[in-house]
Amino acid sequence: MNMDIFKIALAGNPNSGKTTLFNALTGSNHYVGNWAGVTVEKKEGRIQFAEHIMDIVDLPGIYSLSPYTLEEKISRDFILRENPDVVLNIVDATSLERSLYLTLQLIELGKPVIVALNMMDEAKKKNIELDLQNLSIALGVPVVPIVALKKEGIEKLMQEIIDAHHNKASYRPVKFNYGDEVENFVKEVELKLPKNLKEQYESRWIALKLYERDREIQNLVSPFEMESDLESPDRMANLRYKAIGDIVNGVAALEHIKYDISTDRIDKIILNPWIGLPIFGIVMWVVFFLTFSVGGYFADKVDTFFSVYLSNGISAILTFLQASDWMISLVVDGIIGGVGGVLTFVPNIAIIFIMISLLEDTGYMARAAYLMDDIMSKVGLNGKAFISMILGFGCNVPAIMATRTIENENDRMIAILINPFMSCGARFPIYVLFSSVFFPGNETAVTFSLYILGIAMAMLFAYIFRKTLFKGEKSPFIMELPPYRFPKTSDLLIHIWEKVKGYLIKAGTVIFAASVVIWVVLNFNTTGLVDITESFGATIGRFIAPIFKPLGFGTWQSALSLISGIVAKEIVVANTSIIYGLAENAGNAEVMAVLSQAFSKVSAYAFMVFVLLYTPCVGVIGVIKRETNSWKWTGFSVLYQFLVAWIMAFLFYNVGQLIF
Amino acid sequence: MSLTHAKKGECFTLEYIESGNRAKRKLQDMGLTPGVKICVVSNSSFGPIILELRGSRIALGRGLVDKIAVRRIDE
User: Fold this and answer.
1) CATH for A232
2) Does a structural domain hold residue A268?
3) Is A484 contained in some domain?
4) Tens of pLDDT along A284-330?
């Protein structure tokens, strides 16, 4: 059988159910969110349907195709340059007018378009009756009603996609009428347009973009003389919405459509100026409570598995096989101790990610941004930046990528630079270890205080950066408040699995390797196998330790832990058990005895403060480089955080010494 | 008039937006074009204003609100 392989681009507004459709089509692992623009990365999935193989590319959620934001540019460039065979446009049936704005522009690009009209069930509930046949005629493309959440209409959609692919040679986009002025302009341009451009692009689209004074297209046809006209983009937007109005009037009566009633009711409480913020506070407290307590319960179980069953079992086996002592030490203390110490926290990490994606998928995240806008304004950012800060509680890497939805460059730079202060899941194990040893009974309070300190530092530095490095007006807050939706369990599970998988892979690769390296560094020097105090590690640690002396933890052990933690913060914990020569099956009492010698209560807290604030891990440094596209700012980020951490830990230690 | 003093529940038609290019373009893309009917969902003294238009709800920061010129719809 001959396979027929082709490419599909999936495009649509944020919150149109695009990712749910993508999951429904491909069953692949992909993220679902409910606040504007969460799908920033390009995701691909492959489906097979009879003899057809379709590669679907999930484009970012966008409202338009003008190249004003990164997402719009990515989408437009993909459709123009990568030549998908079919463009699948998902449209929210409950906000048809707004959605068609993108649809018209997609159709004008000239590739065959299929409109998947999503949320038909919600539309019915709202008594929105749509004449799909007329809509299809007006747009000149197939319109398929679907309910992505329930996988309704998917088969029909596939069939239409295949048909469109086969008939693409004869496909001609409909010309939407924008009135005499535009049409005359288009005609004029089409006459003058060089032949190679006509072959490469849809000439009507080029002409319309020139009318809009789209700078990129102007450059593309650079010899083309035209006077500047500041008003023309506005006119074009108006004309598009006018054309949409005509289309919509022919297919539906949208005049008296009520907004989602339950969303309206919920928002009356959640966005209330008096109780909205306290509710948000409670929501965040619940998020952390569940992460610490429920996560902690399961973490204990995992810990018992590693430290009792697995390490005792493995050392018994190795002893039975007459393995040498160093071999047993490497496997049990090095690998199981290091990797197991990190894997113990999988339950906590899973829960924080479940909570964060619940906030996103239900639509609450957009409300959190709304509620925080006032406070964020005081430090010179808008509410949207707070979303990336909350995401940072999970992992700073996706959080920093999420700053792409911030329109203004200066705002975005500030949001990136302050993000690592938000305490990620990898730092959490360190707080648990230290607070359980030094502050038994108050673990939650101590850990919570560190998260709060992180937020406070992020806010403080946002303010400082706004006043010094990135002066200027903050960009205005513009955000759609999507209707509340129950997230689909399978979408949620796919997402959590993605995140946990990432963590497990990290444990199996980076942390595994680091554990082995650290074990070697701690057991050898140039003369061979030696006592830990004579090892390479101790030498390196002793060399660096004086830097940390004024902070109360100037031992070579903590110095070495902190430096290796730059690879991944989990390593600090993995390291601690190896460094202090704790076998993985060491009881709490043993851990306590060893750590209490090295730290006092005050210096333990100072150590946690330092861990919270210091230089981000390699993964984050990488993403900062990628997102700022500047080594200068990446280096700056590494250095200023180290300094801030040093100063804060110094203050906590020395002031703490005076008080306690 | 500008939207600043618009009250909850009132509806307007948009006249023009007097704002920088980027924000204006974004607003246009989200459906704020002249003549569109806008209803105010909430407008308290702090926090962004919430508008309903073309079937969706949009929150706009204080700084933008006074740059949006509207005309009251008499009903």
Assistant:
1) 1.10.287
2) no
3) no
4) 888 888 887 888 788 888 878 887 888 888 889 999 998 888 888 88
CA distance A375 to chain B (A): 9
Residue A340 lies in a domain: yes
In chain A, the number of structural domains is 3
Q: Do A283 and A318 lie in a common domain?
A: yes
Q: Among B19, B22, B33, which would you mutate to test the A interface (most chain A Cβ atoms within 10 Å of its Cβ)?
A: B33
Cβ of A370 within 8 Å of Cβ of B31? The answer is no
Are A89 and A227 in the same domain?
Answer: no
pTM over 0.90: no
Instruction: Name the closest residue on chain A to residue B35, using Cα atoms.
Output: A238
- List, in order, residues 6 or more apart from A115 with CB less than 8 Å away: A89, A91, A103, A135, A136, A139, A141, A142, A143, A144
Q: Between B22, B41, B52, which is nearest A68 by CB?
A: B22
Question: What does the alpha-carbon distance between residue A502 and residue A398 come to, in Å, rounded to a whole number?
Answer: 12
pLDDT tens column, B1-55:
888 888 899 999 999 898 777 788 889 999 999 989 999 999 987 789 999 998 8
Considering only CB atoms, A481 lies closest to which of B23, B50, B62, namely: B50
CATH superfamily, with its number, for domain B3-72: Ferrous iron transport protein A (FeoA) (2.30.30.90)
* Structure-token pair, residue A381: 């950012």
The answer to whether position A257 is within a domain reads: no
- Full domain range(s) for residue A33: 4-170
Q: Which of B54, B68, B73 is the mutation pick for testing A, counting most A CBs within 10 A?
A: B54
Q: Measure B2 CA to nearest chain A CA, in Å.
A: 16
Q: Spell out the domain ranges in chain B.
A: 3-72
Give the chain A residue whose CA is nearest to the CA of B46: A374
What is the ipTM, given to two decimal places? 0.95
Last residue of a domain, one of A152, A170, A188: A170
Reference A373, options A333, A401, A406; nearest CA is: A406
Pair (A190, A154) in one structural domain: no
H or E stretch covering B23: helix B21-29
CB–CB contact B55 A254 (8 Å): yes
Look at B28 and A237 and tell me if their CB atoms are within 8 Å: yes
Q: In chain A, which residue's Cα lies nearest the Cα of B65? A: A476
Strands A52-61 and A86-92 come out as unpaired
The rounded distance, in Å, linking the Cα atoms of A441 and A426 is: 22
Q: Which two tokens stand for residue A389?
A: 């800060």
Residue A433 burial by CB count (10 A; 0-12/13-18/19+): exposed, middle or buried? buried
Q: Where among A137, A170, A203 does a domain terminate?
A: A170
